[in-house]
Write a structure and sequence with these properties.
The protein is α+β, with helices and mostly antiparallel strands. The chain folds into 4 domains: 99 residues, Immunoglobulin-like (Sandwich); 128 residues, no CATH class; 112 residues, Immunoglobulin-like; 106 residues, Four Helix Bundle (Hemerythrin (Met), subunit A), CATH 1.20.120. 27% of the residues lie in helices and 39% in strands. The chain is built from 8 helices and 30 strands. The strands form 8 sheets. Strands 21, 23, 24, 25, 26, 28 and 29 form a 7-stranded mixed beta sheet that branches. Strands 11, 12, 14, 15 and 16 form a 5-stranded antiparallel beta sheet that branches. Strands 1-3-6-5 form a 4-stranded antiparallel beta sheet, with no helix packed on it. Helix 4 runs antiparallel to helix 5.
Length: 593
């Protein structure tokens, strides 16, 4: 009986352990930790919601790095714990709101967490980031700015004719309550069906204006003049900007100053459609060659009477306002006995927001082959006036060129052999200058000893020796200065930094001096020309010289900050940080190079 009792006791212990193991294994098998996204494909100006959810409470949650994204909001944590019909339901979520930085294939990496002593990881999620999408829905209205900033494309005419100038101006409107700390251009507008000319903006200026009836500050970001090259509906791709905004919150610091929260935002002007009209066929002249605008025609000769051995020039000039670079002046036609050389094309055209204006001309050199009077026939030039919506034709003046025979070649006018005539003319010209009398003088005896030539040859080697010594010393002195300028590049930059520090209370002058300090340092240190001071070339040279990539990126970022800071509100702390950062960049680069 005792053995049976011991057996039953051991059996009960085994059953209890077995049941506990099954419960533990069942609990382990039911643990869930997964990642979900609001959409698998989104535009670069849209927001993505990422949720990491578990059905058991855990510790040491580690999110992925979110490479290629800006974190707009989060992490927001939510816990749900309920009992329904004796069954427990638990859920814990970590929610992030992301903004993509670039287009293409991006991946949300693995997140990890510890639950009941075990490490769990989510599966990676593949996303496809496309271009700008209109009517972007908001994923988190508490963290996004929707009504305080707009990028607007202002187009002068949505229904022009072919080759009629239109202008497009991109303006960034934003509320005076927010600050812009950084702006990067993601997508630049392209004009494949237009002749385009970008208007340079030397300096961004903040101006006061209104949009949709509300007061805003605005900056003109991009200006271009476009000439459509074909009819129909033409599309202008959008301009997209990635902007860092400082948004005021309801919190205040120890001194009572409002605390700002920095939020990245992608904003786009959207695609624009231009409906281009064909030029009318009714009344189109045969001489029309594509000129659209308002023009004048002038035709002039530099002389209309000349000798047979001379040449003259004829100028055909078109001046006015319109698509001057997109057509050529009419060709000059002259009588066959006048030899015409290829014309010299002269272009004096300026392009601004009102379009092209100025003049184009072709200057012909003409050589007569025989003597006589030669009329230059009238020619015409036609253009289309888009304001009057009709074609206009202009006629040139009529000229007669009188070619005079030389006294010894009157027979040329009656000669039918052009080659023989040219030979006689050239022969007459060649032998007409042989002198019939001479100016010979007698040669007198010349004594070398004690003459001027003697003393000149005596002192010439001494003078050359002195000249060589002076040139050599000057060259060494110049080379020394050149070497010193290379060595003291950091000192020169720090001198400019000192100037910037003196102007720290004047934001515009401070950032102007700070940018000049960095660029002059790089110009001297890398022996660059002023025309070569662009960010891509600077970055490539510094990387080739094995400067730390973090220092290079910090330098490029600092140069961009200098450009943007002039039209945004910057705190004193930010100005001090930029100054210290520039000093550190110069010091680190100077150590390497």
């Amino acid at each position: 009986m005792k053995k049976i009792g011991d057996y039953m006791l051991n059996l009960n212990r085994f059953n209890i352990l077995f049941v506990f193991f099954l419960v533990w294994a069942n609990a382990i098998s039911q643990v869930s930790f997964k990642a979900t996204v609001s959409k698998s494909e989104l535009g670069i100006n849209e927001r993505l919601r990422v949720v990491f959810e578990m059905n058991e409470n855990g510790d040491n949650f580690i999110p992925p790095e979110f490479t290629g994204f800006n974190i707009v909001g989060g992490p927001n944590q939510a816990i749900s714990n309920s009992w329904i019909n004796g069954k427990r339901t638990f859920s814990k979520k970590y929610t992030y709101f992301l903004s993509p930085k670039l287009k293409g294939k991006l991946t949300i990496g693995q997140a990890s967490i510890e639950i009941n002593g075990q490490l769990y990881k989510t599966s990676p999620i593949q996303l496809n980031i496309t271009g700008v999408v209109d009517n972007t829905p908001n994923n988190n209205s508490d963290n996004l700015v929707n009504n305080d900033i707009y990028l607007v494309a202002e187009i002068s005419d949505f229904n022009p004719y072919i080759n009629q100038a239109i202008t497009i101006v991109y303006k960034l409107y934003y509320s005076p309550e927010i600050r812009i700390s950084n702006v990067n251009e993601i997508d630049s507008p392209k004009y494949p069906d237009f002749w385009s000319h970008l208007i340079k903006i030397p300096r961004l200026e903040v101006k006061q204006g209104s949009y949709k009836g509300n007061p805003y500050q605005y900056v003109t970001w991009h200006k271009a003049v476009l000439y459509p090259q074909k009819s129909g509906s033409l599309t202008i791709d959008p301009l997209s900007l990635n902007i860092s905004l400082d948004i005021p919150t309801n919190r205040r610091d120890f001194f009572g100053n409002r605390i700002y929260e920095q939020i990245p935002k992608v904003i786009s002007a959207g695609k624009k459609n231009i409906l281009v009209k064909e030029l009318p066929e009714d009344g189109k002249p045969k001489s029309f060659s594509g000129a659209v605008g308002k023009f004048d025609l002038s035709f002039n000769l530099n002389k209309n009477e000349l000798k047979l051995s001379e040449s003259f020039q004829a100028s055909v000039k078109i001046s006015g306002k319109g698509n001057l670079k997109l057509f050529k002046p009419p060709k000059l036609i002259v009588p066959p006995n006048l030899e015409v050389y290829e014309p010299e094309y002269v272009e004096k055209v300026k392009t601004n927001l009102s379009g092209m204006s100025g003049s184009i001309s072709e200057v012909y050199t003409i050589v007569p082959q025989i003597g006589g009077k030669f009329p230059i026939p009238i020619f015409n030039f036609s253009y289309f006036d888009p304001e009057k919506e009709k074609y206009i034709s202009l006629n040139s003046n009529e000229y007669t060129v009188n070619v005079l025979n030389s006294p010894n070649s009157n027979f040329i006018a009656n000669s039918n052999d052009t080659k023989k005539s040219n030979l006689n003319v050239l022969g007459t010209k060649k032998f007409g200058f042989i002198k019939l009398s001479t100016d010979l003088i007698s040669i007198e005896k010349d004594y070398f000893w004690g003459s001027k030539r003697f003393y000149f040859q005596l002192f010439l080697p001494i003078a050359l020796l002195i000249l060589v010594i002076i040139v050599s010393k000057t060259f060494k002195k110049f080379r020394g200065k050149l070497n010193i300028s290379k060595i003291d590049a950091s000192k020169i930059a720090k001198k400019y930094l000192a100037t910037a520090k003196d102007k720290i209370n004047n934001k515009d002058e401070f950032y102007d001096s700070l940018e000049r300090a960095l660029l002059n340092f790089l110009k001297i240190k890398l022996t660059l020309k002023t025309s070569d001071l662009n960010k891509l070339k600077i970055k490539k040279i510094l990387i080739n010289k094995r400067v730390d990539s973090k220092i290079v990126e910090s330098l490029i970022k600092q140069l961009e900050n200098c450009e943007i800071a002039r039209y945004s509100q910057i705190s004193d702390v930010r100005i001090k940080d930029d100054y210290d950062n520039a000093l550190n960049i110069i010091t680190e680069i100077d150590k390497v190079i």
